Each structure stands twice: as structure tokens, then as C-alpha cells.
Amino acid sequence: MNLKIVYDLETDTLRVVFSGAVIEGSDEDKPGVILDYDRQGNVVGLEILDASKRMENPRSVEYAVGG
């Protein structure tokens, strides 16, 4: 699976999916920031609640490859 970014306007949630692995657990690292883990403990996703209050424009995505 490639990187996937989804913004849900109704719930004001931004989700970044790094892997298609099954989520085995989640931790709210900071209030409103949730990290999802697979069985091996790898981060497979990130969820930001109340995204419009935490970032400038959750509807806009910029992608760059460094190197």
C-alpha cells in the first residue's frame, strides 16, 4: 500500500495511513493525536482529531521527496 491521506470534513479528522497492515493497537500520544500500530509495534497510521484547529489547512496536501 502507498501512503494515503484522508480528511473527513464531517468529523474534522485527518488520517495518514502508512501501511495496509492490520491495526493491533493505538495510543493517543498527545491529546487528539493518535498513533496506530501493527502486531510488531510498527506505526501504520496517524490520526489527528479536530484537524482544522491543529493545522493551517487540512484540505491541502503538499508532497515532496528529499534527497
Describe it.
There is one protein chain. The relative contact order is 0.25. A hairpin with a 5-residue loop joins β4 (33-37) and β5 (43-48). The chain is mostly beta strands. It has one domain (4-54). The longest helix is centred in the last third of the chain and has 4 residues, at 51-54. The chain has one helix and five strands, in the order βββββα. Strands 1-2-5-4-3 form a five-stranded antiparallel beta sheet. The mean pLDDT is 93.
SSE topology:
Layout: E1 4-8, E2 13-17, E3 25-30, E4 33-37, E5 43-48, H1 51-54
Antiparallel strand pairs: 1-2, 2-5, 3-4, 4-5
**How much of the residues is beta strand, in percent?**
35-45%
Overall morphology: globular
Compute the CA-based radius of gyration: 13 Å
Ranges with pLDDT <50 over ≥5 residues?
none
Biggest sheet, strands in spatial order? 1-2-5-4-3
- Most strands sheet: 5 strands, antiparallel
**What is the mean predicted local confidence, pLDDT?**
93
Number of helices: 1
List the helices and strands in order.
EEEEEH
- Would you report the number of β strands? 5
Task: Kindly give the count of domains.
Answer: 1
Class inferred from helices and paired strands: mainly beta
Helix content: under 10%
Ends apart, CA distance between termini: 22 Å
Q: What are the key terms here?
A:
about 70 residues; globular; 1 helix; mainly beta; 5-stranded antiparallel sheet; 5 strands; single chain
What is this entry, summarized?
The mean pLDDT is 93. The protein is 6% helix and 40% strand. The chain is mainly β and 67 residues long.
